[in-house]
Write a structure and sequence with these properties.
Helices cover 53% and strands 8% of the residues. It is of the alpha+beta class. Helix 5 (139-149) packs parallel to helix 11 (256-265), helix 11 (256-265) crosses helix 12 and helix 15 (356-373) packs across helix 16 (426-442).
């Protein structure tokens, strides 16, 4: 058949070629419309995603205000996606479509069977937990744990969707994992039954175990399992070990201040050494969350006392003062020089738990610095902040033995100040240098930014080596009660 004849046949009405041509034309127009629809829907989705992502993570996203735009985005993009899939499906051969249907049904059946089997496994694991009596913990400690780790623990059923949503947005904004959204129940499932591997399999099993825990156990039982296994730092795992290590008491005797200190360690448990800064930051955050979630249970004065109690007066990370030989103390004001803890610099405070020889040298330094430099105040980070030497798992640090102290700021008679850090002010830098020279006369080891720029950039570390024992001070250096507080 010639080309002219074929052309004439295609032009005849009702022919198969005309029908195919009309179908292709219709599909072409429909494809163009779907392309436009998908582009519009995609632009709207990207626009809404950008607004959602960059909304401040610490404030709830206003979904009600964006409801119309979100619904339009879903309808436009979803409708175009569904039409595109239907067209692509209709173009497949009937045999391929049949294989696809059977494969889809098989995958769905396998998925359902897997879900049922996994949940049955989770129920069995939870049911096999030992029924041993839980460790008794104080009400203040349990409330502080809930406030710090999962404020909505008593109201959700295993998953805190608001916290997960907030963590997702915060992590996407930061480009890395900086915040977790797991509830106490989820963390209990991980700590009791699973490892800490960050895998999809572990997260799936954790979800099923969370459902089983919430169904079979009470909230109090879940909370007891959680605090019995959580890491509190310095090798203390579980509340029993932690309360003995830090406070020399049982969990049932922990008060509000001690509870705030312990739960403040959980987000970043100390490994080899403990600093007063870490303790203070964690405690203040715990107190703030207690005020927010349990403000009706704990009055403001009690929370303020828990947040302001001097740390070195009740935290015992390793040994008691008598056990480690650091039994001396220094008054709040020595020869006219007042010592002020950095957390409460407005009021001078006595320095407890010093090694006797260290206390003697501190008195001698105060007298000399007052006479030669006009020193009147010292703001310090504390004398007892570290448990172990850096890089060691078993050697006590000089801080724990009462042989070291960290100094942050110096105030002089003319009300000028010198911070223990690099300064562009020549006068301040010279004052600090002169103070270090006086310190070096009384303490064999003085570390600051000039000789240890990494570790001691913001404070001066003075230390008495272990080979220097206690000495009886000369009579002239032993102040009377009135002289010590002059």
């Amino acid at each position: 058949m010639s080309q002219a004849a074929r052309r004439e046949r295609r032009m005849q009405p009702g022919s198969a070629d005309e029908t195919a041509q009309a179908r292709r034309s219709r599909h072409s127009r429909l494809g163009a419309l779907l392309a436009v629809q998908m582009i519009v829907g995609g632009v709207m989705a990207v626009w809404q995603a950008r607004i959602w992502l960059w909304h401040p993570w610490d404030r709830p996203f206003p979904y009600i205000e964006h409801a119309a735009w979100l619904l339009a985005t879903v309808l436009i993009f979803g409708d175009g996606l569904a039409h595109g899939f239907r067209i692509a499906w209709s173009r497949l051969p009937a045999r391929i479509r049949g294989i696809g249907r059977r494969t889809g049904m098989g995958l769905a059946a396998a998925f359902c069977a897997g879900v049922i089997a996994t949940y049955g496994w989770a129920e069995f694991r939870v049911a096999s937990l030992p029924t041993a009596p839980a460790v008794r913990s104080s009400r203040a400690f349990l409330d502080a744990t809930v406030a710090m780790e999962d404020g909505h623990f008593y109201s959700h059923h295993g998953f805190d969707w608001a916290a997960m949503h907030r963590a997702l947005r915060h992590n996407l904004q930061a480009g890395r994992v900086v915040q977790g959204g797991s509830s106490i129940t989820q963390q209990t499932a991980k700590n009791v039954f699973l490892s800490s591997d960050r895998t999809v399999r572990r997260k799936v099993l954790e979800a099923f175990l969370t459902l089983a825990l919430e169904r079979r156990l009470s909230k109090r039982r879940i909370l007891d399992l959680y605090v019995a296994r959580i890491d509190y730092g310095l090798g203390a795992r579980g509340i029993t070990e932690a309360s003995r290590l830090y406070f020399r008491k049982s969990p049932s005797d922990l008060d509000l201040a001690e509870s705030a200190v312990l739960v403040g360690l959980v987000p970043s448990p100390p490994r080899r050494f403990l600093t007063a800064e870490a303790l203070e930051q964690g405690r203040q955050r715990a107190v703030e969350r207690l005020a927010f979630f349990f403000g009706d249970r704990y009055p403001r004065p009690a929370l303020d006392e828990a947040g302001s109690r001097p740390l070195d007066g009740f935290v015992l990370p390793y040994l008691s003062p008598a056990e480690r030989g650091a039994t001396a103390s220094a008054p709040a004001t020595i020869h006219g020089v007042s010592f002020r803890l950095y957390t409460t610099p407005a009021v001078p405070r006595a320095i407890a738990w010093l090694q006797p020889e260290f206390a003697v040298r501190l008195r001698r330094f105060a007298r000399a610095a007052r006479a030669e430099l006009g020193l009147t105040e010292i703001v310090h980070l504390g004398a007892y902040v570290d448990r172990l030497q850096r890089g060691s798992d078993d050697v006590l640090s000089a801080h724990a033995l009462g042989r070291a102290m960290d100094l942050q700021r110096f105030v002089y008679r003319d009300r000028t100040e010198a911070w223990a850090r690099p300064s562009d002010d020549p006068a301040e830098a010279d004052r600090l240098r002169q103070t270090v020279v006086v310190l070096q006369r009384f303490f064999p080891r003085v570390l600051w930014h000039a000789n240890e720029p990494i570790r001691h950039r913001d404070h001066i570390h003075i230390e008495l080596p272990p080979d220097i024992g206690s000495e009886e001070p000369p009579a002239a250096d032993t102040p009377s009660k009135g002289d010590a507080n002059r």
